[in-house]
């Protein structure tokens, strides 16, 4: 659709809107007199804008996650969720079949609203919302990254401005996006994870001591984010959607716990080249985009493959972001409920004192697996949106590890889950139960009414 057609169509809408509303009012005269008509936006719909407005911001956020201090996996999941929520709320009034999530997600009771009798550029609103919130969420990043944030804002903004009729529309759109971002920023401060990047390893935490409980596996003695599981989830149901309990701890050779540890040991003693490749591809450890970032990059890959529009990207990111955040909150709640020791500790105490896993054991309790939980959550959302047999190639680690191709989202989630067993950092039950619970977390997100 060219700009002349869009402009002419909009003006026709404005000219005939009073007539149409009059007809609708007459046909609905039997309704209650107090019922208000549904607002009708006169703006160009969100679907007319390209998804690259959003995907470029995700690409930048993944770089910021790698290079901003304190961006551990749960912190990354949280930030990606809030920036995605801000994106969605900044453009939802340009999506005729969708509605705001105000009053649906926990603690979100109000947000700024646009004046739908006036014209907006939803592309400018989205760019403004993302740039405003990203600056807040990555406040501790380096100067080069801050310059990159400002540069991206201007690069996206410039062509969008050229397509707008007058300065009032530009100012109104940018202001609305910024107001949404500021409101989401204030909302985020009450969830329990505010500025979590500044306190990854709280010194006031007392590590439980006992047989079978987590012990440090390296120089980092305090575990990561021990209070994170108390954070507010986006969906209330996810505060009580937990994996089943792990096996009763035991060092006895006929126990289920011993068999789990022995499996990790045996597999790691005879890893194939392919198994090592899988473990390394999904390691997403220190100084990486993190597991949540990896899942988000897969969403990005899919949106680019589909040549999606901004409305699609906004809904996909919002659902994936909230699901992954809630999955990590739930996972961390589970970790510090059971405080189960890592395979490295178990195997050295009960099987082989000199054994070390392929991957470095992370500094926090074992059960359940964060990567598995996030994989299950992301795969459930993406499958619901794009279908059971959506084939794609994951090039997240291009230049470092070979790309990996999958026939479905569940296939990628299963491989990511199994990778933790190959890496020697999780028992099978932590992987499989984490994956299953992540899917349940996502199903609760999907109960939200995104559409009218």
Fold and architecture overview:
With 452 residues, the protein is mainly alpha-helical. It has two domains: 38-188, Vanadium-containing Chloroperoxidase, domain 2 (Orthogonal Bundle); 214-445, Vanadium-containing Chloroperoxidase, domain 2, CATH 1.10.606.20. The protein is built from 14 helices and two strands. The chain starts with a helix and ends in a 7-residue tail after the last helix. Helices cover 54% and strands 1% of the residues. Helix 4 (122-137) runs antiparallel to helix 5, helix 4 runs parallel beside helix 6 (167-188) and helix 10 (310-338) crosses helix 14 (428-445). The longest helix is centred in the C-terminal third of the chain and has 29 residues, at 310-338.
Notable traits:
452 residues, mainly alpha, Vanadium-containing Chloroperoxidase, domain 2, 2 domains, two-stranded antiparallel sheet, 14 helices, elongated, disordered N terminus
If classified by CATH, what would the architecture of the largest domain be?
Orthogonal Bundle
Helix content: 40-55%
Low-confidence stretches: 1-38
Q: How many strands in all?
A: 2
Write down the CATH class of the largest domain.
Mainly Alpha
Beta-strand percent range: under 5%
Cα distance, first to last residue? 26 Å
- How many structural domains are formed by the residues? 2
Number of helices: 14
Order of helices and strands: HHHHHHHHHHHHEEHH
